[in-house]
Here is the input.
Amino acid sequence: MKEKLLKLKEEISNKLLEVKDLAGLKDLEEKYFNRKSEFNIILKGIKDLSDDLKKDIGQLANSIKQELTLSLQEAKNSIEKQRVSKEKFDPSLPAQKQETGHLHPLTQIRNEIEDLFHSMGFAVIDGPELESDYHNFTALNFAPHHPAREMQDTFFVDLKNKDEQYDMIMRTHTSPVQIRAMKKYGAPLRAIVPGRCFRNEATDARHEHTFYQLEGIVIDKGINFSHLKGVLETVGKKLYGPNTKLRMRPKYYPFVEPGSNGEYTCFLCSGKGCRVCKYTGWLEILGCGMIHPDVLKNGGIDPKKYSGFAFGFGFDRLVMLKYNIDDTRLFNSGDLRFLKQF
Ligand code: PHE
Here is the structure.
């Protein structure tokens, strides 16, 4: 009986070493440890042995049982460990893609345009979005209560500026930075102002309450209309290709004289007329003009010595036309289906 037990122990130990998975282990348990297994039949027979043998064999059988139970548990643990570590890291699987963001389409084009203006000697400057009524309107020749203010639906803020002199508003255009730049830097001056503006618009595909403009201002001795035209032509060619033409037609803005709009040949139909340009062949995209002498004075610059021009691009519109985007509300939507296309 003793030999039988030792032989069984060796047999089971060897089998345990060969087992590779949990199913194999279960089969082994079933075969050697269930109620009808050889091992249990031996255990059951112990009670019929003589007292001496009972003690000897009993002890041996018990220690073998303990040892085997332990080995079985160890085998189980190591199989489980292998399975988990395999699941966690499988070097043969393709790597998981790391999502990285990218610049917003408005920022991409802004960077491009800033580079272009840098190359022409313009500084890039900034101004506050919460602006005084004075800088936004009065200093730009919009007299208080003059109907010209109605051109720009304004968000009024329940605040006054520091010395309680002026009402505060959300700036309706980037032009107030003209005054700030003149006061701060004086003449000569060459700068652009990309920035966010706000108007109390009923929003639709072409109007947003929050939008972007790109202002430009040049002041020096002897600056005239042809300089303005030259700069705008250069920008148009850069944005929409070398065959782009510029058309300027008179338009009223209180802070420029003469004032003009600016249209480029439609990049889509090259001027033939299509849906994008509403069959005119031209895309209206900016306002501009020679800076009004009173505005120069308000900025502390002598209009007898200096002259200058200013222009303001509807920046969202410029990007919409470049990429054929048909709804301006997409820019601020945070919609990844839109953003991922750029
Ligand atoms: N600020 C004007 C607007 O928002 C555009 C403009 C800028 C016109 C500079 C002339 C000169 O409509």
About this structure: DSSP finds eleven helices and ten strands in the chain. The mean pLDDT is 90. The chain has two domains: 2-82, 105-339.
